[in-house]
């Protein structure tokens, strides 16, 4: 009922059936994605979701706090006053994410980022986080996919028709792109690695020739005063409350012209 209310195209039994088939195919490890704070979600429903996930015992669990991007039907319904239930507050969503993480930790999982918990941090690694978030290239495939190559951040065509037509012409289906300066790359990698909960400083000193704590002195001081993070000689470390709201902290490190820019 909750998935139907939120306009999702699958139901809970579809997830269980797909998960069973994936396990039978003997993949090296399997992750399940969740969204907390869906429209109409109750605290009891969220705890039941986590209980069922732990029962399924995936190798990794990813939890995203529900957002309503401006290019979605939910946002159009919100603006028109036609949502089937009121959006939950960010405080409620953060509390549910924290509760979910704590239940997973009690079940033997380790929280490895603002979104992910895994059974074995040595074996169950999200390679795009390990590499892309540290400056590696990744070509995005598919409609609206984001990619990063040679210092250029790009997004593919956002409709299937435009994507297919561009590919049929033998062209790269990129809709928009921006070439990043050295400072842009520093900012990008720093904010992405903040999502991991800890940013080692030595790689930035070696790669960019600067210390991020000196580049971002003011926002780091302000966020430390709020209790969201702490700085040591070796790293910037988020507290658990900071990790739960990291997406709301990242814009503090953007250059002024980008601080109010939406990604949709």
Question: Can you characterise this structure?
Answer:
With 264 residues, the chain is α+β, with helices and mostly antiparallel strands. It is built from 13 helices and ten strands. The chain has helices at residues 2-5, 12-24, 43-56, 73-80, 90-106, 127-131, 160-168, 182-194, 202-208, 212-215, 217-225, 240-244, 246-249; strands at 31-36, 60-65, 110-111, 116-118, 146-149, 152-156, 174-179, 198-200, 229-231, 235-238. Strand 5 and strand 6 form a beta hairpin. The chain is globular and about 50 Å long. The mean pLDDT is 94.
Helix content class: 40-55%
Number of helices, counting only DSSP H or I runs of 4 residues or more: 13
**Nearest-integer average pLDDT:** 94
N to C succession of SSEs: HHEHEHHEEHEEHEHEHHHEEHH
Structural class: alpha+beta
Which strand order spans the largest sheet, edge to edge or round the barrel?
Answer: 1-2-4-3
Largest sheet: 4 strands, mixed
Q: What's the Cα radius of gyration?
A: 20 Å
Return residue spans where pLDDT drops below 50 for at least 5 consecutive residues: none
Descriptive labels:
3-stranded antiparallel beta sheet; single chain; alpha+beta; 13 helices; 264 residues
Question: What's this model, at a glance?
Answer:
Helices cover 42% and strands 16% of the residues.
Please give the structural blueprint:
Layout: H1 2-5, H2 12-24, E1 31-36, H3 43-56, E2 60-65, H4 73-80, H5 90-106, E3 110-111, E4 116-118, H6 127-131, E5 146-149, E6 152-156, H7 160-168, E7 174-179, H8 182-194, E8 198-200, H9 202-208, H10 212-215, H11 217-225, E9 229-231, E10 235-238, H12 240-244, H13 246-249
Parallel strand pairs: 1-2
Antiparallel strand pairs: 2-4, 3-4, 5-6, 6-7, 8-10, 9-10
Helix pairs in contact: 3-5
